């Protein structure tokens, strides 16, 4: 095989890597992607897409349970896990085919195999050397564990959880962040007894505190147990399952322990340090143009410190392609990237929490209002409670929106426009929200902050 040269060589074909490639070819660049597993990466094969498919199955199960409430005579006979898996896998397969076709149609060259950075302009894949005027590192992340906690048998991460061909009766989940609470939501809807162990004082602790508290009440109501401020001390396994011990001396017996304690960067032994790239605890250090300490080498996605989200990776990928293309692009900073937890209830937010806004702008400069979904007709119809909270600067723009309730993920598109366009509540409150929709709750919040509430008290 001959060595080949491109304008850009991308190492890793996940959300971030393929976004670089797609935007770069639009700008007339020749691009190669090196991928050791499957194009689409974690998000498509082991993350966003398969988990959301399972959450949809979970939602359908709960809707059937609640059907009588809406006058529909239906009965949940059970969960067919093989059916859930094939529903999920078919969606992933279709999207995989789609992205493969797109990459091929755009003339992006794929190289299968484990790539290694061998200099600022070369990536080695097997016997082949690929040279790029620029190289973009996009090798993604893996599910972390705790020191001494081995992932084996019935101690699993999200990766094995997606492969399970049985439904656990009792599950312990270590970590009450987004991945932990999403699996808790699925398994509870499938009939399992679930206990979440979280070392911090709250579930979904990165969110606005009032949202975390409502989330905990909702989980309690769903019969999901959780231990907050609880520190894991060890786990044993035997024929009856796992026995998880906490520093308090408590033990939780379950069929499975899901370890959901965060994700680490995939950067070891890939030649990064040898090429002179500065690293920080395994993450790749970049400047505000996403360039590494080696000129011409960029990094995108989960290996860059900050939020680990697919749409952040896409944004960074587009940004780097445009930066290399000389377009001087702009980037939305992490704080203003929308975040969603797709559990039941959902949590969706963008921008500063009230506490963080006060810290940044000063206590007396910040104003907020929280509107209860109890006053929203559509929320009543779809059977959800929750709230929409907005944080604004006094006589200034909205700097944060924080929502909880079924389907609020669909509202975050508007919320992020408001925050990123630095809209004032006075601007938004003049615009219409169709009735009855949950968007009206966002409209009411803006009306109240503009001093002209219609339904808000
Ligand atoms: C269970 C779960 C649920 C999630 N849900 C969501 C969600 O709902 N929304 C959301 O926004 N985010 C979600 N995420 C996060 C999201 O998946 C990641 O942020 C995203 O995949 C990061 O993209 P990336 O391109 O940086 O890395 P990855 O998607 O991890 O891609 C990196 C790619 O590089 C390849 N690679 C690595 N090393 C090499 C090498 N040496 N040579 C060749 N190829 C290599 C890998 O095989 C992989 O395909 C979820 C993650 C998990 C685990």
UniProtKB/TrEMBL annotation:
PROSITE patterns: PYRIDINE_REDOX_1 (PS00076). NAD(+) binds at residues 175-182, 198, 262. The keyword Repressor does not apply. GO terms for biological process: 2-oxoglutarate metabolic process. It is an enzyme of class 1 (oxidoreductase). Its EC number is 1.8.1.4. Keywords: Cytoplasm, Disulfide bond, FAD, Flavoprotein, NAD, Nucleotide-binding, Oxidoreductase, Redox-active center. Pfam families: Pyr_redox_2, Pyr_redox_dim. The active site is at 435 (proton acceptor). One of its GO terms (molecular function) is flavin adenine dinucleotide binding. Residues 6-317 form the FAD/NAD(P)-binding domain. It comes from the Bacteria. Residues 337-444 form the Pyridine nucleotide-disulphide oxidoreductase dimerisation domain. Its cofactor is FAD. Signal peptide: none annotated. NCBIfam families: lipoamide_DH. The active site is a redox-active disulfide bond. Belongs to the class-I pyridine nucleotide-disulfide oxidoreductase family. PANTHER family: DIHYDROLIPOYL DEHYDROGENASE (PTHR22912:SF217), DISULFIDE OXIDOREDUCTASE (PTHR22912). This is Dihydrolipoyl dehydrogenase. It comes from Agrococcus baldri.
